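Quick illustration, no need to memorize.
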Amino acid sequence: MIKQKIKVLVVDDSALIRSLLSKIINQQPDMVAVDAAPDPFIAREMVKTHDPDVMTLDIEMPRMDGIEFLDKLMKLHPMPVVMVSTLTERGAEVTMRAMELGAVDFVTKPKLDIQAGMTEYAQDITDKIRAAALAKHRIKRRISSQQTSPVRAPVVASLGSQFASTEKLIMIGASTGGTEAIREVLMGFPPDSPGIMITQHMPAGFTKSFAERLDKVCKITVKEAQQGERVLPGHAYIAPGSHHLSLKRSGANYLCELSDGPPVNRHRPSVEVLFRSGAQVAGPNIVGIMLTGMGKDGAAAMRELRDAGAYNFAQDEASCVVFGMPREAIAAGAVHETLPLQEIARRVVEHLSRIGARTNRV
């Protein structure tokens, strides 16, 4: 049986970018660029004609920008979209808005004058197209659910335990679909939650905007991690897009450690690096959370966390955009509980409160 190729529609106002992306896609044995549109109005007709599996969508275009088109598309014809963004502060801010509207992932615009990195760029964008294709049916269900269901009130109950908030740490790993999954989880944590360290696969230049958007909607403080800063209760620290984030200890304090070392599992930042440091430094004081993402980054180190005494959660398949990373963690025997996304924060809070209550009785 011949496997059907992933049908990709390229939407970009630059003829050069359309040609480059179409060439990259057509060089892959499992995908084909069915067409390329210079603006959303033409793209709309091509969607009707080709019914593509995935769309790559430029943000800045004439007549109608990518965000406005994405908003309309997700309401009328939900489908996996990979945004193509400029590496600027505005580009980062708009890209985060696209993730909120339902885009699966994003890549930066290729640097056409630097051929040396083109092979790596091609692998990056085609990997994201494959991940988006896997999410096709879930995207339709998720967007439909968002449109018909009322917004859930976040879980913000106090932990009621000074032990839990000062000694425990929460570590979160995510990739494809993770920006919105992380937002949902963090909105469920109370202001006295333990310090939280997060690795989300994301390019340099975007994590600061991501952290700032989260900080506006969460009860905790969310920021991009800085070298050597203390991990405080009620704060979440996101790995910068260009650096691995790991945990260090100095006396009674937990600290953020940043490294620009080689990619691990092809990623920098890598979930493997974060989780392994937790196993080595804090063991039983860690609560690990694996969220949606393609691949296996972090699965082996999450098992190390469990073996070191940590308690681990994973997002279930039904609520994941891509179930790759949680599936690998579960297969590695690293996970204690597998839960729908909307239940993770509540269960983590219950787990920490129970530990705190037990400790206070001793």
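The radius of gyration is 20 Å.
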